[in-house]
Amino acid sequence: QVQLVESGGGLVQAGGSLRLSCAVYGRTFSSNTMGWFRQAPGKEREFVAAKNWSGGNTYYADSVKGRCTISRDNAKNTVYLQMNSLKPEDTAVYYCAARNDLRTMLLATDVDYWGKGTLVTVSS
Fold it and tell me: Which residues of the chain are under the pLDDT cut of 70?
């Protein structure tokens, strides 16, 4: 059974940084697309970042471009999202996501596996 388990969320002041982690259990997504989505209160789930771990293509939402970096540690089977210069509008539940192939993952409907999410709250 595949499980994606997020951690690293919390309360941070505007301008601060957080690193989210997504530990993968049950299989290795070394040749798949993995990434992050987020959902703010009262809003739809939206794309944040994704990377095709075979071809290397990386995608970021315009709202986080230049402030976020997606990376992975193969030995730990863990994907990370480093977030810097956080803004109050970044407040949301952040979800780790994966798909079974190498295609892009920009929509929630593209996702095959979801984590349960980790809450990020940015205070002004």
Answer: 55
